[in-house]
Amino acid sequence: MKRALWFVWCAAVAVCWADPAPPAVRGPAGGGPPPMLTYQMRAPQPAGDRQTGQKDGRALFSNRCGACHLAGGMGTNLLTKERVAAGEAPESGLLANRKDLTVDFIKAVVRRGKLAMPRLTRVDVTDAELDAIAHYLGKSGG
Ligand code: HEC
Question: What is the second-level CATH architecture of the domain 51-142?
Protein backbone atom coordinates (compact mmCIF):
# COMPACT_ATOMS: atom_id res chain seq x y z
CA MET A 1 0.00 0.00 0.00
CA LYS A 2 2.75 2.41 1.03
CA ARG A 3 4.65 1.52 -2.09
CA ALA A 4 1.59 2.28 -4.26
CA LEU A 5 1.21 5.76 -2.70
CA TRP A 6 4.89 6.40 -3.24
CA PHE A 7 4.48 5.42 -6.87
CA VAL A 8 1.52 7.81 -7.36
CA TRP A 9 3.47 10.66 -5.73
CA CYS A 10 6.51 10.06 -7.94
CA ALA A 11 4.34 9.91 -11.05
CA ALA A 12 2.66 13.22 -10.16
CA VAL A 13 6.03 14.93 -9.61
CA ALA A 14 7.33 13.57 -12.91
CA VAL A 15 4.28 14.84 -14.80
CA CYS A 16 4.56 18.32 -13.25
CA TRP A 17 8.25 18.54 -14.06
CA ALA A 18 7.69 17.37 -17.60
CA ASP A 19 5.16 20.22 -18.20
CA PRO A 20 7.03 22.59 -20.54
CA ALA A 21 7.30 26.23 -19.48
CA PRO A 22 5.19 28.63 -21.63
CA PRO A 23 7.22 30.42 -24.31
CA ALA A 24 8.68 33.75 -23.16
CA VAL A 25 6.64 36.77 -24.29
CA ARG A 26 8.87 39.09 -26.31
CA GLY A 27 8.39 42.50 -27.92
CA PRO A 28 9.19 43.21 -31.57
CA ALA A 29 12.80 42.74 -32.69
CA GLY A 30 14.89 45.86 -32.19
CA GLY A 31 12.93 47.11 -29.16
CA GLY A 32 10.47 50.01 -29.40
CA PRO A 33 6.75 49.94 -28.73
CA PRO A 34 4.49 47.37 -30.41
CA PRO A 35 3.18 48.79 -33.74
CA MET A 36 -0.31 49.63 -32.41
CA LEU A 37 1.07 51.97 -29.75
CA THR A 38 2.82 54.14 -32.31
CA TYR A 39 -0.66 55.34 -33.34
CA GLN A 40 -1.28 56.59 -29.84
CA MET A 41 1.49 59.21 -29.89
CA ARG A 42 -0.32 62.29 -28.64
CA ALA A 43 0.29 65.88 -29.72
CA PRO A 44 2.15 68.06 -27.21
CA GLN A 45 0.23 70.62 -25.14
CA PRO A 46 -0.17 73.72 -27.37
CA ALA A 47 1.64 76.85 -26.16
CA GLY A 48 -0.35 79.66 -24.55
CA ASP A 49 -2.41 80.39 -21.44
CA ARG A 50 -4.49 77.32 -20.55
CA GLN A 51 -7.34 79.54 -19.25
CA THR A 52 -7.76 81.80 -22.25
CA GLY A 53 -5.42 81.28 -25.18
CA GLN A 54 -6.43 77.82 -26.37
CA LYS A 55 -7.68 77.57 -29.95
CA ASP A 56 -6.08 74.46 -31.44
CA GLY A 57 -8.86 71.95 -30.76
CA ARG A 58 -7.26 69.23 -32.83
CA ALA A 59 -3.97 69.31 -30.88
CA LEU A 60 -5.79 69.66 -27.56
CA PHE A 61 -8.04 66.71 -28.38
CA SER A 62 -4.99 64.62 -29.21
CA ASN A 63 -3.18 65.73 -26.04
CA ARG A 64 -6.06 65.51 -23.54
CA CYS A 65 -8.32 62.82 -24.96
CA GLY A 66 -5.90 60.92 -27.20
CA ALA A 67 -4.80 58.29 -24.69
CA CYS A 68 -8.34 56.90 -24.91
CA HIS A 69 -9.75 58.33 -28.15
CA LEU A 70 -6.99 57.93 -30.76
CA ALA A 71 -6.65 54.60 -32.62
CA GLY A 72 -6.10 51.73 -30.21
CA GLY A 73 -7.34 53.67 -27.18
CA MET A 74 -9.80 52.06 -24.79
CA GLY A 75 -12.45 54.71 -25.55
CA THR A 76 -12.09 53.97 -29.27
CA ASN A 77 -12.28 50.23 -28.64
CA LEU A 78 -15.45 50.51 -26.55
CA LEU A 79 -17.13 53.00 -28.85
CA THR A 80 -16.28 50.94 -31.95
CA LYS A 81 -18.01 47.97 -30.36
CA GLU A 82 -21.05 50.09 -29.46
CA ARG A 83 -21.23 51.75 -32.89
CA VAL A 84 -20.94 48.48 -34.80
CA ALA A 85 -23.66 46.96 -32.59
CA ALA A 86 -25.83 49.95 -33.52
CA GLY A 87 -25.23 49.30 -37.23
CA GLU A 88 -22.72 52.13 -37.78
CA ALA A 89 -19.37 51.89 -39.59
CA PRO A 90 -16.44 50.82 -37.39
CA GLU A 91 -14.53 54.00 -38.35
CA SER A 92 -17.09 55.97 -36.34
CA GLY A 93 -15.48 54.54 -33.19
CA LEU A 94 -12.98 57.38 -33.58
CA LEU A 95 -14.56 60.58 -32.25
CA ALA A 96 -12.69 62.62 -34.87
CA ASN A 97 -14.62 60.77 -37.61
CA ARG A 98 -18.06 61.47 -36.14
CA LYS A 99 -20.35 63.90 -37.94
CA ASP A 100 -23.24 63.66 -35.47
CA LEU A 101 -21.66 65.11 -32.30
CA THR A 102 -22.75 68.50 -31.01
CA VAL A 103 -20.67 70.94 -28.97
CA ASP A 104 -23.06 70.75 -26.01
CA PHE A 105 -23.11 66.94 -25.95
CA ILE A 106 -19.31 66.75 -25.93
CA LYS A 107 -19.04 69.26 -23.10
CA ALA A 108 -21.65 67.40 -21.06
CA VAL A 109 -19.92 64.03 -21.52
CA VAL A 110 -16.53 65.47 -20.57
CA ARG A 111 -17.80 67.21 -17.41
CA ARG A 112 -20.22 64.49 -16.25
CA GLY A 113 -18.59 61.32 -17.63
CA LYS A 114 -20.51 58.61 -19.45
CA LEU A 115 -20.47 54.90 -18.53
CA ALA A 116 -16.80 53.85 -18.78
CA MET A 117 -15.63 57.43 -19.47
CA PRO A 118 -14.52 59.28 -16.34
CA ARG A 119 -15.58 62.92 -15.95
CA LEU A 120 -12.73 65.37 -16.38
CA THR A 121 -12.30 68.36 -14.05
CA ARG A 122 -11.34 71.94 -14.96
CA VAL A 123 -7.81 71.03 -13.84
CA ASP A 124 -7.66 68.18 -16.36
CA VAL A 125 -9.22 70.28 -19.15
CA THR A 126 -9.93 73.99 -18.65
CA ASP A 127 -13.14 75.54 -19.99
CA ALA A 128 -11.15 77.28 -22.75
CA GLU A 129 -9.54 73.98 -23.76
CA LEU A 130 -12.86 72.12 -23.69
CA ASP A 131 -14.44 74.84 -25.82
CA ALA A 132 -11.75 74.40 -28.48
CA ILE A 133 -11.99 70.58 -28.33
CA ALA A 134 -15.80 70.59 -28.50
CA HIS A 135 -15.76 72.89 -31.53
CA TYR A 136 -13.20 70.67 -33.25
CA LEU A 137 -15.25 67.48 -32.63
CA GLY A 138 -18.75 68.97 -32.75
CA LYS A 139 -19.28 68.82 -36.50
CA SER A 140 -23.03 68.76 -35.99
CA GLY A 141 -23.05 72.29 -34.54
CA GLY A 142 -23.85 73.95 -31.22
C1 HEC B 1 -9.62 57.59 -19.54
C2 HEC B 1 -10.08 57.45 -20.89
C3 HEC B 1 -10.82 58.58 -21.52
C4 HEC B 1 -10.43 59.89 -21.65
C5 HEC B 1 -9.15 60.56 -21.14
C6 HEC B 1 -11.46 60.53 -22.40
N7 HEC B 1 -12.45 59.64 -22.71
FE8 HEC B 1 -14.16 60.01 -23.77
N9 HEC B 1 -14.77 58.12 -23.52
C10 HEC B 1 -14.03 57.13 -22.91
C11 HEC B 1 -14.77 55.89 -22.98
C12 HEC B 1 -14.31 54.55 -22.43
C13 HEC B 1 -15.98 56.18 -23.64
C14 HEC B 1 -17.10 55.20 -23.97
C15 HEC B 1 -18.05 55.18 -22.79
C16 HEC B 1 -19.01 54.02 -22.91
O17 HEC B 1 -19.87 54.06 -23.77
O18 HEC B 1 -18.85 53.08 -22.12
C19 HEC B 1 -15.94 57.59 -23.96
C20 HEC B 1 -16.97 58.26 -24.60
C21 HEC B 1 -16.91 59.58 -24.99
C22 HEC B 1 -17.96 60.30 -25.69
C23 HEC B 1 -19.35 59.75 -26.01
C24 HEC B 1 -19.47 59.28 -27.42
C25 HEC B 1 -20.82 58.65 -27.68
O26 HEC B 1 -21.08 58.37 -28.85
O27 HEC B 1 -21.60 58.45 -26.74
C28 HEC B 1 -17.52 61.55 -25.93
C29 HEC B 1 -18.25 62.69 -26.65
C30 HEC B 1 -16.18 61.64 -25.38
N31 HEC B 1 -15.85 60.43 -24.82
C32 HEC B 1 -15.38 62.76 -25.44
C33 HEC B 1 -14.15 62.88 -24.82
C34 HEC B 1 -13.33 64.06 -24.86
C35 HEC B 1 -13.68 65.33 -25.63
C36 HEC B 1 -12.23 63.82 -24.09
C37 HEC B 1 -11.08 64.74 -23.76
C38 HEC B 1 -11.41 66.03 -23.22
C39 HEC B 1 -12.34 62.46 -23.59
N40 HEC B 1 -13.52 61.92 -24.06
C41 HEC B 1 -11.41 61.85 -22.77
C42 HEC B 1 -12.81 57.25 -22.31
C43 HEC B 1 -12.09 58.44 -22.20
Answer: Orthogonal Bundle (1.10)
